[in-house]
Model the fold of this input.
Amino acid sequence: MMEAQGEKIREVARRLLEQDRVDVVIGFEKGSLPLRASPVFVRTVAETHRLIWDCFCENNLARYLTRIDDHRVAIVAKGCDSRAIVALMAERQIPRERLTIIGVPCQRMVDRRKAAAAVHGEILAARCQDSNLDVEGRDFRRSLPRDAFLYLSCRLCTHRNPVIHDVLIGDPVEESTLNEPPSLRLERCSDHQRWAVFSQTVSSCVRCFACRQACPMCYCQECFVDASTPSWIGRGTDPSDIQMWHIVRAFHMAGRCVACGACERACPMEIDLFTMLEKLNRDVKELFAFEAGISADTTPPLGTHDPDDPGDFIL
Amino acid sequence: MIPVEKTIENPYLPMPATVERTFIETADRMIKTVELSLARSKDQAHFHFVPGQFCQISVFGKGEAPFGIASSPTETGPLRFTVNKAGVVTTAIHHLEIGDAVGLRGPLGHGYPIDRFEGKNIVIVSGGFAFTTQRALVAMMLDQNNRSRFGEITVIYGARTPGLLLYRDELRTWEQRDDLKTYLTVDQRDDTWGGLEGFVPDIVVQVAPSSANACAIVCGPPIMIRLTFPRLVQLGFGPDHIYTSLERRMKCGIGKCGRCNLGHLYVCKEGPVFSYARLQTLPRED
Amino acid sequence: MTPDWEPRIVAFLCNWCSYAGADLAGTSRIQYPPNIRVIRVPCSGRINPLFIIKALQMGADGVLVSGCHPGDCHYQTGNYLARRKAAVLRRFLEFLGIEMGRLHFSWVSAAEGTKFSQVVDEVTQAVKRLGPATRLVKARTWT
Amino acid sequence: MTMKKIRKEDLKRRVEDLLETWQVFAPVWKEGMVEITEIDDPATMSLDGPPPRIPPKRLFFPQSEVLFHYAKDTRGVEIDSDPEVARRRVVLGVKPCDAHALSLLDCVFNGDRYQDPYYLKRREQTVVVALGCDEPALTCFCSSMESGPFSRKGADVFLTDIGAAYVVEVLTPKGHQLFEPSRLEDASPENLEKAKEREEAAQKTISSHVERAGLVDKLDEMAESVLWKYIHEKCIGCGVCTFLCPTCHCFDMVDEGDEAVGQRVRNWDSCQFPLYTLETSGRNPRPSGRERLRQRVMHKFNYFVKSFGQPACVGCGRCIIHCPVNLDVRRVIEAIWTAQ
Done:
């Protein structure tokens, strides 16, 4: 099925470029490593063969939309990419008329690290076939159940079908019902335990800012960590500075996060960044009945108000 | 030239220094000159520099930034730096008062190649507040023990308005002297201005200094430098006889922190003074 | 905790209401605990949650944000926007393990000098019960 | 040099002895990743695992370190700094590529004109024990970078795993502090044969190659090429490749504290960040990802070669494995080679 989707993506891209309807197609190409795909920018018909679709297309391509110079852009968008597009439209960051959205119902992406940890020895080849993830090493060959190796954000995903598209590649998939979110378990702990978990979770951060850079919604001209007048945060490895980075980054996502998990996938230290965002998303939904990236016409919740908003906590 | 010694001391430690004097240079009050003296006698004894070299000035709690030395080694007394108020450190420098303690690292980098200037006519082309180390160079050449080592000295210096020229009192004394020619220009004249009007690269063509046995030293905003180089070449200056001093964001000042490189050279360590000929061999970055 | 420990509480007060309310409390000689350090802001809507988090990092034992009553904002909606941010932020900080009692919000008008003193009293008591802040606080390693 | 050997349990015993007076660092599994960290029990070390996520450069050039403290009053300013290392240190189980990287960092920090006392003190006080790499990964291209799975560069002692024991080569006087060769058993001809087999097998495993002959000139030609626009396009501008790189050494210096008392700290910085070169005036000589990625590639494979005669890359593959968008430096070099 995914191969057929890849063929269809190539076909659509070819047509768009041939008919000069777009200047560039942003999609995925085969990665240089097993378990990887890689973003690609296709500008000629001759290059369309590079486009692929598989269960390793883990990046959120919408992050390129706020940076690209080309005028008319086609983009391959799974559910979360499409939500980021909608969220960016709601924030007036990208004009709809310049976009051609090639929507792809998503089979959900494989967590490459989890797969690598499940076998002894290096994976030299990997491929998704039906519900299996087949991996191969120097002296092993295994067929793993794909659903057990999905990213956490994918397992919790309730929007696998693109929420907006001009072309849809293949038939819509059935949406999953929400599993128990990981933040609920933490809520049952004491504040002491929660602080221990949070401070431990972020302690290995090296401040490479891959989380910020991978995020489709992080497009500030100047991030608060880079400001110098005033300087909001220490530049070193002091635990409180690292904690502050993660708190402020996450909070800046409140009502804006599309739950794609791109931040966590990008993290070289494998920090669980998703749980805190999932908590914020859950609260925003509960307090303001809002989910980011569903409607481009609804103002994000922290940019608006209702006179009847909850305020019982105010003295 | 001062031979470069292998430094075995900790190159990151600033020398304590004291603010001796500060004064505002320009009408917009954005440029200030500070005079600093080294607090320890051993530092004073070891501090030898060539015009064109720079120091890192520390304002503790704010950080450190690089500034060309605006005084000449022939001038006794404190070191002089002229600072444009722009960022955190420069603003803090503007707030310094007499007696304040700061830190100084340097002299850093390589200054103007004085040995190659000897016996030559010297043409100084300058724009805005980049004039600082060129002022140091001219002051050094004008020193009575040095003047005979150089041929004719021509200074072409411009700023946007008359009030933005640095060292105006000194420039007036230069204009009176007969052992150098001074051409001052402004982009926009006002009622007080009796000098030239026009952009520096154009004035260079107008003045047309002779390139015979001459070296030119060009400092100023990147656009001025870019426009001046080809005009000097037209006047017959060889690229190896044209020099400039580059500015880059710097931190360590000793070629380690990485950011100020131009190709494989570090502006802080191998520069900031480069010949136009050398720059042409390096990758362009701007 | 030393027995004579007193909390330091940063209070972000809206210029148009709570700041004047504090002023009124002062001129009316109404007593309230001296634990707050006031930062005057043009509107509670101006308060970037970053300010609150930064105050906690710099060692504030508690933070109070006080603005105009609903409907009274000098800029029409600033306090409503602040209320939304506050609603999410307090839950989020609590989720991370920063004690709920460190962060407080209030509506205090320019006429409510007494209410201001009561709010400060209540907040100070709440923060006192928690003791000195330790989480997120940056240790000054250089002194 | 005679080749020695030490049995694996004797190495553990030696580590136990060392722990009394030395600081011992070794690879340890922690939350699914290998980290080089200080150990207090040889049982925790894991010498045959994958390379540590953060290379051992951080033991010599930590992510954040205090350069000096200052204290200012009306009489002036006091500045104190103490680049001393309290105890002798040993790092065990360093991958040969990572040890080689230390020899490259030496070029920078032990410069001809300025030496970095912080780095050099730690280098002087630390014995680096490298272990031959038996299982190079798909992403390893060390042998293209004047290194290799059994490169001895940068190591004070080199170990080769031959099953129940290691063949020991004590390569430097510093290495002698750790292993007095006369007190070690000689390796037998069979041991040496086995060690040679291991080395050859590892070398054969390296499947990845980067063409370097003439690369400096090719990069000079390509410096202004439009190709960089397309090469950098997928790059998201994070610092993963630089922070995980065993040879990247760029840093920032900032003050922490107030005007009266505080400290100057240096922190890792990255050429991939816009702020790295942004000038106060607003001018940035490297305004976009295109110039910043070019800087990284040029620094590694052109500038560093011009300055020090070898590339600033050891082919460890960390930047390939951990790049969030799989921007593979080998593909970058290939693209440069195939460009006109």
Q: What stands out?
A: The first strand of chain D starts at residue 4 and ends at 7. Chain D has a mean pLDDT of 94.
